[in-house]
Amino acid sequence: MALAIAQLSNHEHSDEQLMLCYAKGDSKAFEQLYLKHKGALYRYFVRQLGDKQLAEDLYQETWGRVIRAAANYEASAKFTTWLYRIAHNLLIDHVRAVKPVDLVATDEDETGLDTFVAGEQDKPDVQWQEAQKSLLLKTCIALLPQVQKEAFILNIEMGFTAAIISDIAGVTLEATKSRIRYAYQSLKDCVSAKWQEVGRHE
d(Cα 202, Cα 200) in Å, to the nearest integer? Predict the structure, then answer.
């Protein structure tokens, strides 16, 4: 009877409760966590790496580490923060090892980034302009320092606050706010400069 009640209320559990249930052997709890977070976590890697196979590898390794760490999980921090801290550490390890030069997203689903470049919708050729600016934005994101790129993506793509991002990256709140601010300013300046170049070549 207790088991039936637990299963019945499973869908109402918080992420932290689900993770604790999984640590006790409830595979259904892990399935719920996986389904809830898989899309955003995969995009986190794709946006920063631009290589879907590499993103898939790091994505799978993140879940592998979640599984291996389940027995020691403590609900002292939000599950989402804990999950992305694992992902962050894997990404940083990769960047340090490989030092990739051309990190740019190639995913066709650009929701999130579009809102950053969205401008006035009542001008002629606005769709063409926004498509061009979206491409320019992806190019400019690739030029950002890694720490700014991650902070920007976590902020605009995942909707995380600066406080959560600082927990994920293991830096102070002020440092995180600075990274986000510099990223936004750099991207606006970069897109503006490249947009002017497009205009000169027309």
Answer: 6
